[in-house]
Predict the 3D structure of the following.
Amino acid sequence: MKSEWHIVSNERIAERVFRMILRGDTAGIAPGQFVEVLVPGCYLRRPLSVGDVTDDRLTLIYKMVGEGTARMAQMSSGQTLDILTGLGHGYDLTKAGEQVLLIGGGVGVPPLMYAAKELRAAGKHVQVVMGFNSKGEVFGEDTFRAMGCEVTVCTMDGSYGTRGVVTDVLPTPTPFYYACGPMPMIKAILRTAGTNGQISMEERMGCGVGLCMGCTIETTEGFQRVCKEGPVFNAGALKV
Ligand SMILES: Cc1cc2nc3c(=O)[nH]c(=O)nc-3n(C[C@H](O)[C@H](O)[C@H](O)COP(=O)(O)OP(=O)(O)OC[C@H]3O[C@@H](n4cnc5c(N)ncnc54)[C@H](O)[C@@H]3O)c2cc1C
Ligand code: FES
């Protein structure tokens, strides 16, 4: 659904990472879905995961990497954005057992925040393992802890939490997991934790709504569009 959103706040929460809270029509937005933001001055919309929904507030957490996200970082409360919501298939939270594992890397963490909130509301025990390059990039730890999740943070350079990568600290046996992160992390999760989980894939997108085929990936069910059949796939379906 395309609608106008009012920026409530837009603040830096870590190195090059911002949290934007917007007010608008949040009806039907599910964990693991994404939105497409039309940034003023940019031709293509930018896909961003839903970080949280509370009443009429939508939270987006984004890393400033290029023109679109740099422009977003300059915006402030009072301004508006044209956003398409309700995009893609999110996490199927009914697959979770009583113990659930969330695995996130960098800006793959935001979709897990909304999932964690829903899983905790359903009474699940939620363990979160997050990986970042270094201390300055870490965000979200307090949010997960405030929800009552058990949290482990890893940094590649050891400047915060455990030195190393997420797959160094995954619990065994690994409960059903929900994951999102860069491709090397996803490959490592599949090798280490197996396929009893769901993974949100981040592919470069054109249209974002299933028309251009620019975001297809190979799965056990043939080529599928990340923006339409995904972004969340059963881990066992991925050919990465
Ligand atoms: C389903 C999905 C969810 C995402 N969720 C988040 C999130 O929650 N937080 C976050 O920081 N980032 C997220 N990303 C990545 C984010 O879309 C890109 O970082 C962003 O589009 C970069 O835009 P830019 O204009 O700053 O960069 P530029 O490099 O200038 O962008 C140029 C073009 O490439 C596209 N593009 C560039 N990088 C990516 C990428 N990694 N994925 C898809 N398209 C890209 C842009 O949309 C734009 O059309 C997500 C991507 C996808 C596909
Ligand atoms: S981005 Fe166009 S089909 Fe997915």
